[in-house]
Amino acid sequence: MAIDQQTAYARSAGERQEPPGNAAAPRRGADSVCFWREKRFDDLECLTARFYRHAYAPHVHDTFALGVIVGGAEAFTYRGVRHVAPAGSLVAVNPDELHDGAPADEGFAYRMIYPSVALMQDIADELEDRPAGFPAFREAVMDDPEAVALLGEAHVLMEAHVQAGAHKLAVDETFTAALALMVGRHSVSAPRARRPGQEPGPIRRARSLIDDLYMQDLTLDDLAGAARLSRYHFLRAFRREVGVTPHAYLTHRRIAAAKLLLGGDEPLSEVALACGFYDQSHFSRAFKGCTGTTPGQYRRGTRAAA
Q1: 296 pLDDT tier (thresholds 50, 70, 90)
Q2: Which of 19, 56, 79, 223 has the most CB atoms less than 10 A away?
Q3: pTM for the whole structure
Q4: Beta partners for 78?
């Protein structure tokens, strides 16, 4: 059965009306995740989740991470500051920014999207009375009921489209309006903080080595040697220029490669080995620690969008 826009709005609004504090916290139970992709929005990744126990490892995204907290509260560290986002909050993390995430108390529920830089730039460029430039969000946690309502509505419509056939036009209109509202109200025009390939020569050489040989068991000596720096100097310089440690960047690169392979039919054990993980268990822990989903859940969501 198709879902109309009014029904989607009502569902999203019902989630948002949970009061803050302990009364809003989801009752402790099993974590649950629904993941899917929206091909026509530049392969947008979407996530609906309730987490009671799961904690994200520190990680980065090539994309933005935008969402609404619909129950409980999430705690996360971003730009060296610990944030708590209660129910009804709007959250935003810019690309290539290190962050983590975990339940602040009894658990939290949220709806997230991961729009590409190109998609967000296109929306920003079309807004009138906005200076040209990269749309970087000023704050990680925002109180904006209108934006929360619109993004929540768009997310419910997208999920309904995957599961029950919501009309594409309703999805497109609401999604575009939600991102335009967020960019217009909460972003500033700024240069990209980090652009892969633009680091100074020594760090660029080391990052390129990881990009090329992520499936191998690289050592600090390998990377420092490529950079022609001492190991200590290299570690400090790499984190300063790239934003994460070499090991975190290597894990991110392996997971990015695994996402591509998960669109195929290779067994998960083979994907794990091809991307440099010790075994399937190691692969699953690292993948969920950065994405919130297991490799199997990610594969099912990817196939549903095909």
Answers
A1: very high
A2: 223
A3: 0.84
A4: 81, 99
